[in-house]
Amino acid sequence: MGTSTRLVHLGNDPHSFHGFVNPPIVRGSTVLFPDCATMESRNQKYTYGTRGTPTTDALCEALNALEGAAGTVLVPSGLAAITVPFLAFLSSGDHALIVDSVYGPCRYFCDTMLKRLGIEVEYYDPEIGAGIEALLRPNTRLVHTEAPASNTFEMQDIRAISDAAHRHDCIVTMDNTWATPLYFRPLDFGIDVSIHATTKYPSGHSDIVMGSVSANAAAWPRLLEAQTTLGICGAPEDSYLILRGLRSMAVRLDHHQNSALAVAHWLEGIDAVERVLHPGLESFPGHEIWKRDFKGSSGVFSFVLKAATPDQFKPKAHAFLNALSLFGLGYSWGGYESLALHVNLNDRTIRKAPSAGPVIRLQIGLENIEDLKRDLEVGFRAAAAV
């Protein structure tokens, strides 16, 4: 079946719910058992609200099908979707390799909580590829990837990294929020645990915060054990809305992709732009990996705004952003509205910030492209005046 057809029908069995096309929202904490023997053995599908309801299960089933996963857990945020598998597979004395271009809050978690737990964290260049094998130690237990990279969009050779890590019995995790399972399926490229901020494109309407973690058969039992032990779970109401968002995700993502590429190509011709950071552009260094492994691109990318000296970086970036009216100033993305922000890359240890100017990240929403271009032109004029 085609992608849109699958999304319309995944996680949905109307005849199980009196013919209603959407699964109902089942809320609950307490679940009753018919007798003591069943209670003692927990020999029934539902035992307590934190272990899932028919609503959360419907979303998990849909995500399993999209990811090709043995199992999926739902958690309250995209950050929790990263931290739960880290806690599942890492112990005191272990060594973890984290891509240097990682999502900022993930780095903070690694540098604070993981280190307090006695886990050694080392960052690596996103473009290292098979060369990551030289960094693997006898106590390396986890390699975390993110492709493309947060904010600067470097591509990673996921298959090469996974193969190298597995030769040393390491778990490999990937934050796949940018591409979604529609444009890249991590488990097909050797990833053990696929992480997704369903806050973004699955929701699509900027009104839900949730994360999902999908695992292959080997990693699934330990992931499930960690989620159960930590008592972290997704809410039925949010699951219902994510399921609703999934039905239109292919259509929305296609629009985001086409609009973002159109704006990115247009930005390449703007004199005030030093370079555009989008894997879908032939000018981008990671384009060949993206073209080889990915089926599409989403609506988020960055560009470097020209500035003569470093002391102009912030004033020019702020002038540009403050002049925008259609692009909102916001941290998230994946919703219907366009967003922009000045990227902070001060936490990088290997892949440093560009030296030619500030990095501006754009989320291209569902607005008309010409309107967005006009809004950006106003921003460029304001930056030029600084």
How would you sum up this structure, described in words?
It is a single chain. This protein has 386 residues and is α/β, with parallel strands linked by helices. It has 2 domains: 3-247, Aspartate Aminotransferase, domain 2 (3-Layer(aba) Sandwich), CATH 3.40.640; 249-384, Aspartate Aminotransferase, domain 1 (Alpha-Beta Complex). The protein is built from 13 helices and 12 strands. It has helices at 3-9, 36-41, 54-67, 78-89, 104-116, 158-166, 180-183, 220-230, 236-247, 249-267, 287-293, 313-322, 369-384; strands at 71-75, 95-99, 120-124, 140-146, 171-175, 193-196, 211-215, 273-277, 300-305, 328-329, 339-342, 359-363. The strands form 2 sheets. The protein has a 7-stranded mixed sheet, with helices on both faces. Strands 8-9-12-11-10 form a 5-stranded mixed sheet, with helices on one face. Strand 4, helix 6 and strand 5 form a beta-alpha-beta unit. Helix 3 (54-67) crosses helix 9 and helix 4 runs parallel beside helix 5. The longest helix is centred in the last third of the chain and has 19 residues, at 249-267.
